[in-house]
Specification:
By secondary structure, the protein is α/β, with parallel strands linked by helices. It folds into 4 domains: 228 residues, Glycogen Phosphorylase B (Rossmann fold, 3-Layer(aba) Sandwich); 209 residues, Glycogen Phosphorylase B (Rossmann fold, 3-Layer(aba) Sandwich), CATH 3.40.50.2000; 166 residues, Rossmann fold (3-Layer(aba) Sandwich), CATH 3.40.50.1000; 72 residues, Trehalose-6-phosphate phosphatase related protein, domain 2 (Alpha-Beta Plaits). 44% of the residues lie in helices and 19% in strands. The strands form 5 sheets. Strands 5-4-1-6-7-8-11-10-9 form a 9-stranded mixed sheet, sandwiched between helices. The chain has an 8-stranded mixed sheet with strand order 22-21-20-19-18-27-28-29, with helices on both faces. A 6-stranded parallel sheet has the order 14-13-12-15-16-17, sandwiched between helices. Helix 11 runs parallel beside helix 12. The chain is elongated, with a radius of gyration of 32 Å. Bound molecules: GDP-alpha-D-glucose. GDP-alpha-D-glucose binds next to strand 12, helix 13 and helix 14.
Length: 724
């Protein structure tokens, strides 16, 4: 039976050396709890680094055996690997870049090499356990390359990836020398999740600009497969925080802490030591409050917990020094014998202590400079059983998108932070409760279990839709069938689209002329007396005539406006006019003026605006504008506006490739029909074909064609196979 593998850098377990040997303590973190319902079932398993170094194989085997009883499997890393892959590339390159601290990024090739090696190690560990139809859910920025590494050997596995930290804007991400490899690595997934819509759109924009793949409603088509990108804001184990806040142990601690702290109002701040958390900025804002609002002196204290992290690294030890200097300064200047402005602790606390802190704080200050989500603010809200308390939340934390009932602040704006504290400290209880109620209702519903089920549900759905497309891929078996039908045929009709189907796309359409291989291929195909080859294209007749006019082929061009039987004259299809062209051309000219890089192609009965060479993003924006402009202008005319690949075309409505192809099939009926095309103007051709025709779409988008292939190279290979 298919199983599920969860993969993260670190296993959710703490292993410690005791007198009796190693002791294993599964972690109760949010992610571990949420995924508990998955990885603890049957054959399912969680793969990751157990957090300790072991040298001898016997001890490794022992730990692995122990871990197996908890449904976990270790990836062993050396101290060197942890230094370069984890502390190096993950935490000194990706972390600062993804959190908008580009000035902190280390550009180190050795780190990158180690990152690739360790990602490969993870991929190997997964492949040793995974089977073809398993589901694999990878977590976070330490493992960005693993999805594509897995895809090479497990083409049909379900692969999901969730990134817990932000995905930065393209302008920041592009600074990384390894940006493209990182994206390609991630695109091996079927589903990629982020906390927020902003992360998701930054990722899509980076993929578009760096890898050249566009998306439709968040679904990227890479040419090989579809990859869905979606936002899944992670929730907390709500019941657990609610329960803990009501427990005897928490209440007992609260009474004890209260006794030592006195009955001042409390503001709380809890973070891991990190520059992304905005701790100095928060301290300065508090200092500002004490300076500008003297009435809070001796009335309000800040309880600040900083959880130790990476303090051997210079940037972090500097940050710690800065925090301690600020705390000392503020306490020194404002403190009294009976009141300390700031209670500072550099340590971590057990869950019940944390819960007591949440309960006893009037205000929670969660003001990171940047945070993927931030769970502390959600835990604070869940712990407020009496609904009294106010959350001040940075708009740079993912959580701010959900918690609009908090007081939202820009952590760089000291005045605003100060005013937010003032407002929080004076907020009437009724109002506090109103906001709490709304946030609690939402967090109770969008809890960690909801998050897991949304992600897993979408991953399954994605795979099902992937299967639907895969069955239509023209594989070797189907190709043999095609060849058999071709060989049997006595009167064969083959419709071939040109751009994107037989040649790739170029920046300049004039550069897409046929190479020798293609000319030989079409010549051989067309010279077979049993074949009738029709070049069916949106291009103007002049270029195609120049490039292919000397071959024994027919033409249907300008989307069916002009047709020509080999050796005869061009004929005009149906009723077409060009009286509209002059007016429309003026509008197109306007868009060329406003959009550097764009240009107009004039055909006999249509006009095309090309934006292939325009700055990414601007071209798409202008093309949407132009389309609605043209549609408005052409309402009373018999014209149609088409959006193609990097083009907008306006033409007569009553001609299209489909009508052209039908006319041809009536004139030259065959016993074998074949059509290949790549964009949606070719859909008309596919629909005009008899049911048994071999219709082939290049790219895996939705199509009326019976089969699809990945690129124009495949089309050439198919044609070559037919004539051999
Ligand atoms: C990544 C992203 C995203 C903190 N101090 C103590 C303690 N904690 C617990 C909190 C909370 C967790 O640690 C920290 O929450 P974060 O949200 O900051 O999560 P991270 O795992 O650090 O970070 C972040 C998250 O992933 C989830 O996707 O939200 O943006 O950076 O649960 O309660 N727990 C105990 N003692 C402490 O002293 N027991």
């Amino acid at each position: 039976m298919a199983k599920t593998l969860i993969v993260s850098n670190r296993l959710p377990v703490k292993i410690t050396q005791t007198e009796k040997g190693l002791s294993l303590e599964p972690s109760a973190g949010g992610l571990a709890t949420g995924l508990g319902s998955i990885y603890k079932q049957g054959e399912n398993i969680w793969i990751g680094w157990p957090g300790l170094y072991l040298n001898d194989e016997a001890s490794k085997d022992n730990v692995a055996e122990e871990l197996k009883t908890e449904n976990m499997s270790p990836v062993w890393l050396t101290a060197e690997e942890i230094k370069d892959y984890y502390e190096g590339f993950s935490n000194e390159t990706l972390w600062p870049n993804f959190h908008y601290f580009p000035q902190y990024v280390e550009f180190n090739e050795d780190y990158w090499e180690a990152y690739k090696r360790v990602n490969r190690k993870f991929a190997d560990a997964i492949m040793a356990l995974a089977e073809e139809d398993d589901t694999i859910w990878l977590h976070d920025y330490q493992l960005l390359l693993v999805p594509e590494m897995l895809r090479e050997t497990l083409p049909h596995a379900q692969i999901g990836f969730f990134q817990h930290i932000p995905f930065p804007s393209y302008e920041i991400f592009r600074m990384l020398p390894w940006r493209r490899e990182l994206l390609v690595g991630m695109l091996g997934s079927d589903l990629i999740g982020f906390h927020t819509y902003d992360d998701m759109r930054h990722f899509l924009s980076a993929v578009n600009r760096l890898a050249g793949f566009s998306n439709e409603h968040g679904v990227i088509t890479t040419g090989k497969r579809k990859v869905k990108v979606e936002s899944y804001p992670m929730g907390i184990d709500y019941d657990k925080y609610e329960r803990t806040a009501a427990s005897g142990e928490t209440l007992e601690r609260e009474v004890r802490y209260r006794r030592s702290l006195g009955d001042h109002k409390l503001m709380l701040s809890i973070d891991r030591l990190d520059y992304s958390k905005g701790i100095p900025q928060r301290l300065r804002a508090f200092e500002h409050l004490l300076r500008e609002y003297p009435e809070y002196r001796e009335q309000v204290s800040l309880l600040i917990v900083v959880v130790p992290s990476r303090d051997q690294v210079e940037k972090y030890s500097n940050l710690k020094d800065e925090i301690e200097l600020l705390v000392g300064r503020i306490n020194g200047q404002y403190g009294r014998l009976n009141w300390r402005p700031i209670h500072y602790f550099y340590r971590s606390y057990p869950l019940h202590a944390l819960s007591a802190f949440y309960r006893m704080s009037h205000v929670a200050l969660v003001t990171p400079m940047r945070d993927g989500m931030n769970l502390v603010c959600k835990e604070y809200i869940a712990s407020k059983l009496d609904q009294r308390g106010v959350l001040i939340l940075s708009e740079m934390a993912g959580a701010s998108k959900e918690l609009s009932d908090a007081i939202l602040v820009n952590p760089n704006n000291q005045d605003q932070m100060m005013e937010a504290m003032h407002r929080a400290l004076t907020m009437p209880e009724e109002e506090q409760k109103q906001h709490m109620e709304i946030m609690q209702t939402s967090l109770r519903r969008y809890n960690i279990h909801h998050w897991v089920s949304m992600f897993m549900g979408d991953l399954e759905e994605m795979k099902a839709s992937q299967r639907g497309t895969l069955t239509r891929l023209l594989d070797t078996k189907l190709q043999n069938q095609l060849k058999k039908a071709y060989t049997k045929g006595k009167k064969r009709v083959l419709f071939l689209d040109y751009d994107g189907t037989m040649v790739g796309f170029t920046k300049d359409p004039n550069e897409a002329r046929p190479d020798k291989e293609l000319l030989d291929l079409i010549t051989q195909l067309a010279d077979d007396p049993q074949n009738r080859v029709i070049i069916i294209s949106g291009r103007g007749r002049d270029t195609l005539e120049k490039w292919l006019g000397h071959l024994s082929v027919d033409f249907i061009v300008e989307h069916g406006v002009w047709m020509r039987e080999q050796g005869k004259d061009w004929e005009l299809a149906g009723k077409v006019t060009d009286v509209w062209k002059e007016d429309m051309r003026k509008t197109l000219d306007l868009y060329v003026d406003r959009t550097p890089g764009s240009f107009i192609e004039e055909k006999n009965y249509s006009l095309v605006w090309h934006f292939r060479k325009v700055e990414t993003g601007l071209g798409e924006l202008r093309s949407r504008e132009l389309c609605s402009h043209l549609r408005f202008l052409s309402t009373n005319e018999d014209l149609q506006v088409l959006e193609g690949d990097m083009v907008v075309e306006i033409k007569n409505r009553n001609v299209n490739k489909g009508r052209g192809a039908s006319a041809w099939l009536q004139r030259f009926p065959g016993d074998f029909t074949f059509a290949a095309g790549d964009d949606w103007t070719d859909e008309d051709t596919f629909k005009a074909m008899p049911k048994e025709a071999y219709t082939i779409k290049v790219g895996s988008k939705n199509t009326a064609a019976r089969f699809y292939v990945e690129s124009h190279h495949n089309v050439r290979a198919i044609l070559k196979d037919l004539i051999e």
